[in-house]
Amino acid sequence: MGDQMQFIVEKLNQEPFRKNYNLISFDSLEPLQLLQLLSDVLGEIDPKHAVDIREELPEQTAKRMLSLLGILKYKPPGSVSDLSAFRQGLVTGSKPVIHPVLHWLLQRTNELKKRAYLARFLVKLEVPAEFLQDDTVADINTQYEELMEAFKNLHKEHEQLKTSGLSTAEIRRDISAMEEEKDQLVKRVERLKKRVETVQNHQRMLEIARQLRLEKEREESLAQQKQEQKSQLFHAEQRLQRAQLQLKEMQEAVADSKPESLMKKLEEELNFNSYLVTEKLPRELESKKASVYLLQKVMAEPALTQSDLTALQSEINGINAQMNQLIEKRMIKYEPTDSKFSMYRQQASIIARKKEAKAEELQAAREELARLERQAQHRSTQAHGPEGSEVLTEDELKQYVNKLRSKNTLYKKKRLEIAEITAECGILQRTEELLRQRHEAIQQQLQSTEEKKGISGYSYTQEELERVSAVKSEMDEMKGQTLDNMSEMVKKLNAVVAEKKASLAPVIKELRQLRQKCQELTQECDEKKIQYDSCAAGLESNRSALEQEVKGLLEECAQEESNYHYVNCMKRTLEVQLQRAKEELKAYVCPDPQERRRAVREQYTRMILEQENLGKKLREKQKVVRESHGPNMKQMKMWQDFEQLMECKRECFQKQQNQAAIGQVIQEGGKDRLVL
What we know:
CATH topology of the domain at 1-123: Actin-binding Protein, T-fimbrin, domain 1
Distance between the termini: 61 Å
CATH class of the domain at 1-123: Mainly Alpha
Pfam family, one: IFT81_CH
CATH superfamily of the domain at 1-123: Intraflagellar transport protein 81, N-terminal domain
Strand content: under 5%
Helix content: over 70%
Low-confidence stretches: 385-390
Keywords: Acetylation, Cell projection, Cilium, Cilium biogenesis/degradation, Coiled coil, Cytoplasm, Cytoskeleton, Differentiation, Phosphoprotein, Spermatogenesis
CATH architecture of the domain at 1-123: Orthogonal Bundle
Shape: extended
Organism: Grallaria varia
Coiled coil: 137-253, 309-382, 504-563
Structural class: mainly alpha
Order of helices and strands: HHHHHHHHHHHHHHHHH
Main location: cytoplasm
C-alpha cells in the first residue's frame, strides 16, 4: 500500500498534474478532494471528463466515472468483490476504492488515452430491433457500421505507418542525394539556357517545346486510359461469355424438362413439405412442449439433496426391472395369431423411423446446400477485383501460372545479369581508379618536364584547345540541325499564321468597329466619372464637417450629463447628511432619556467613558504586576534550585542501588566458587 501511494504521489507531482503532494498531504485528502483528483486524472485521459464535481450531483459523477472506467476496461481488485460496494465507495470517495483506481490509471496513461480516443468512434450504438424495421433507420445503421469498419482500417494503417517509418539517416541520405541531383539539373538547365539564348526567337521555341512536352504527357495518359479501357473491355467480354454460357445451360435444362417431370418434382416436394407439416413438426413440437413442461416442473420443485437423488435413482431402477419382467411375461404368453401382427408392427415402426431419418437427412442436405450457395456467392463477391473482374477459370488460371513462371525465369535471368553487371562495374571502377592514378602520375611527370624545359602549362593549354574545338564542332552541328528544324517550323508557323489571318480578317473588321465604339463610350465614362468625383468630393467635405459638429455636440452632451449626475449625487449625499443631522438634533433635544441614548453623541460619550474605565483598570493591574514581579521571580528561582537538588538526590540514590546490586552479585559469585 505504501509503494502504491508513493507511485501515485510521484506521478501526480509530474507533468501535466503538478500537484506538489507528499505522502502525508495526499493521505489527508478529504473524500471530495479525492473524487476531484480522480476526475482530473480521467479528464487528462478524456477531455470530456475535465469537470468540477461541485457543479454536478454525486449520482451523475459516479455514473460518468463508472461509464469511462467500463470503457477503459477497469476491473475492481479482489478486495472490492461486490460491484455495489465499489459503486458506493466511488460515490463516497473511499480511499480503499479511489487509490487502486488512481494507481491503475497512472500506470498506463498513454495506453488509456488511446483507448478513450478509439472509444469515441468504436463504441457501438445499440439500436432496438423494432426500430431497425424502418428502411431509413436500417440504412443509416449499416452506413454507421461501414464507417466504423473504415475507421478501424484507417487507424490500423496509421499505426503501421508510424511503426514502419524510415530512419532519419536514410531520409537524410535521400535528401542529400536529391539535392545533388537538383544542383546537377539546375546547372544543366543553365547551360542549356545559355546555348539557346544565342538562337533567334528562343522564347517562341521554348514555348513550342513546352507545348510538345504537354502533348506527349497527354498522349501517355491517353495511352494508359486506352490500356485500362481495353482491360475493362476484356473483362466485360469474359463476363458476357460466362453469362451466355449460363443462359445456354439454363435453356438446355428447360428444353430437356417436360411437364410430367416438373409435375413429379413438384409432387415430391409437396409430399415432403406436407409430411414435415403434418407429422414431423407436430411430433417435434409436442416433444419440445413435454420437455419444457418437465423442466418447468423440475424448476418449481424444491432443490434435491444427494439422498433424494439416490432414492429417485433406486426407484427408477426398480421400475425398469418391473417393466423388463412384464415384457418377458408377455413374450412367454404371446399367441401365434398375434405374431404376424407384431411382425407387421415392427416393420411399420422400422419404416417410419427410416422415413424420419431420411426426412431429417434431406432437410439437413437442403440447409447445407443453401449455406454452400450463400458461401459461394459471398466468395465470388469477395473475389471481384477493383475493375469488376470475376474468378478466373481453370484455363485462365493455367495461363496466369505459366505467365508467372515465364516472368519468374526472366526475373532470375535479369537478376543474374544485374549481378554480372555489378561485378563488371566494380572491376571497371577499380580500373578507372588505377588509370586515374597513373594519369595523375604522368601529369605530374609532364608538368615537371615542362617546368624543366621552361614551357609549363603547354599540355593543359593544348587539351583546352582540343576540348574547345570539339565543343565548337558539336555546337556547330547542333546549330545546323537546330536552324534546319527552326526553318521548317517557321515555314509551318507562317502557313498557320496565314490561315489564321485569313480566318480572322472578318473578325478584325468587326473588332475595329467595336474598338471605335469602345473609345467613345470610354470618353463618355471618363466625363461622367469626373462629374461624379467632383460631386462626391463636395458631399464628402460637407459630411465630414457635419460629423465633426455632431461629434463635438455629443461630447458636450456627455460632459453635461456627467456633470448633472455628479451634482445629483452630491445633492443626495448632502440631503442624507442633513437628515441625519436633523435626527441627531431632534434626539439630543428630546426630553425622553431613551431617545437621547440613541443619539450618536451619547453613544460616543458612553464609549469614551468605558474606555477610560478600562484604562484605569489596566493601569492598576500593571501596578500590581510590577510590585509582585520581584518576589515572584525570587520564588521561581528557589523552586528551580529545589528541583535541581531533588534531581541530584535521585541520581545519587540510583547509583547507590546499582553499586549494592553489583556487590551482591560479586558475593554470590565468590560463594559459588567456594562451593566448587
